[in-house]
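Long-time lurker. I teach an intro course on protein structure, and each term I like to show students one example going from raw sequence to a predicted 3D structure in token notation. This year I'd like something fresh instead of my usual example. Would anyone be willing to generate the tokens for the chain below so I can use it in lecture? Attribution to the forum is fine with me.
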Amino acid sequence: MKPVMHKMTLSGLCLTILLSTGSLVQAAGPFFPRQTVYNFGGGYSPTAFYGYRGIYGGGYYGGYPGYYGGYYNDGSSLIRAQGQAQVDQSKAMINYQEANSKYIDNQKKLAETYVARQKALRESIHEKAEIDKELAQQKQAAIEAQKEKNLKLQESGLSPYYNAASSQDSETLNASQLNPATGEISWPESLMGPEYAESRQKLQELYSLKNSTGITSSLSQEINDEAVKMKSILRGQIKTMLPNDYLAARGFIEGLINMGKTSRTG
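-- Reply from a regular --
Happy to contribute to a lecture. Here you go:
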């Protein structure tokens, strides 16, 4: 009896070990390494096919980046950024081309305006030169004609520059010729030549002094001396001046002499 019981005990122990070992067998394969296969009544547990760490979370469908909300990035953001950069660059190039075109157009207009102004200036200078030339010719022709007329009068015994109705002592200047408030002298054109410049300046200084301090004998004498010097210069131009111009210039100088005398208050 004891040997039989002993055999049955050993057999039961072996069976128990076998069943325990079989339930802990590790499944091995090329797709599911190190996964535990549980036997549920003749079938295999879903772990063998879907993974131990969650069916969709960490297994084949849930763990691979890029599928079903995982970590996979297909590069669309980078493509969009590159596309936007190209658009921005194209806009910048268009803006640059437009700005450059406007700059070139403005420079062209400036150049055209400058050329037009220079042309107009040259034409104006040329036109003025022609007018001045014509006026000079007319003046010279009048001088030559007057010279011839004066020569004929001299040959007949008459002087074209003698004005019997004009007295040197009675010549005066009006307010437009000599300003009584300031002493400023308005010179006739016939006395505006460079040969009269020194005398004009000296007489103006004397009359400005007369206006501020009053007339004195010494000041009157200086006015007389400078006016006589101017009259001498005028006499040297008698042959090249028209009679009316000469007589008007001489009368103006005589008026300066008379207005500067001590017996006059103006």
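Some talking points for your students: Helices lie at 2-23, 47-50, 60-63, 76-155, 197-213, 217-235, 243-259. Strands lie at 26-27, 35-36, 39-40, 43-44.
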